[in-house]
Amino acid sequence: MSIRVVIADDQPAVREALRVTLGGEADIEVVGEAGDGGEAVHQVMWRRPDVVVMDLRMPYVDGISAIRQLAAMDTPPRMLALTTFDTDEYLFGALQSGASGFLLKDSDPELLLEAVRALHRGHGLVDPQVTTRLIDRFARLSPASAGDARQRLTTRELEVLRHLARGLSNAQIAEVLTIEEGTVKTHVANLLRKLSLPTRVRAVIYAYEHGLAPHHSDP
Predict the structure, then answer these.
(1) For the modification 4-aspartylphosphate, which residues carry it (predicted)?
(2) Where are the alpha helices (DSSP H) in 24-165?
(3) Do 150 and 193 reside in the same domain of the chain?
(4) Interval 95-133: pLDDT, tens
(5) pTM for the whole thing?
(6) Strands of 28-34's sheet, edge to edge?
(7) 142-167 b/e with 16+ CB inside 10 Å = b?
(8) Are residues 179 and 115 in the same domain?
(9) Are 150 and 128 in a shared domain?
(10) By three-state DSSP, how is residue 18 classified?
(11) What is the residue-averaged pLDDT of the chain?
């Protein structure tokens, strides 16, 4: 089955470019478009896409507000934030509101395709142009208490969380821990549920905020 995608951007030319890029792939189908956040929410409720590519700066209802509304749905789509503006306000606002990925509009089209496919598989993707800043910001924070996570999670789930924070995929985590990839998926689902986190990206942020992420020098 094709990955069903809704595109939300207030500029028709950008929507056209996104539609051409995404719709040209055999495994991706653009099922709806929106010119503002409110219309994007309506399109999602009507079209039930797998992934939403959401511009953040739009009139009436902005992208971050729309992401927040969609994240509150019983079965929200995966959301990829897309913006021209390389600022912390947009980066952290989108991820903390429930986006699973963040890309700048000047990113290579291949990265957009990779991001849509990664989100559909349940992974997250942050533009390499801002990844270092994301990590550095949380590395500078005074870590919140990790006690709550250690009480809620099993030892194995904590290990998986730390490897998520290193940016490893499920397959890589399975190889490191010498377990099945399906078992890793179960651990990821369990730790997200126990910590009330909507996405893997939010789990990475949580790990940095609570001092559970490895330091840069760690293997």
Answers:
(1) 55
(2) 37-47, 63-71, 88-97, 109-120, 128-140, 147-152, 155-165
(3) yes
(4) 888 898 899 988 889 999 999 998 998 888 888 777 766
(5) 0.70
(6) 28-34, 3-8, 51-55, 78-83, 101-104, 125-126
(7) eeeebeebeeebeeebbbbbbbbbee
(8) no
(9) no
(10) helix
(11) 86
Rounded Cα gap, residues 32 and 161, in angstroms: 35
Residue 109 contacts residue 19 (beta carbons within 8 Å): no
Report pLDDT for 210: 77
Judge if 76 and 158 occupy the same domain: no
Distance CA 119, CA 79 (A): 8
Let me know whether 203 and 110 are in one domain.
no
Owning domain of residue 55: 3-135
Question: What's the burial of 196, exposed, middle or buried (CB within 10 Å: 0-12/13-18/19+)?
Answer: exposed
103 and 47 within one domain? yes
Residue 198: pLDDT band by 50, 70, 90 thresholds? confident
The mean pLDDT value for 146-153 works out to: 71
Number of domains composing the chain: 2
CA distance 136 to 101: 18
Query: Which of 13-22, 125-134, 150-159 is the most confident on average?
Result: 13-22
pLDDT at residue 190, rounded to an integer: 93
In the beta sheet, which residues pair with residue 52?
6, 79
Report the distance separating Cα 192 and Cα 170, nearest Å: 14
In the predicted model, is pLDDT for residue 34 greater than 90?
yes
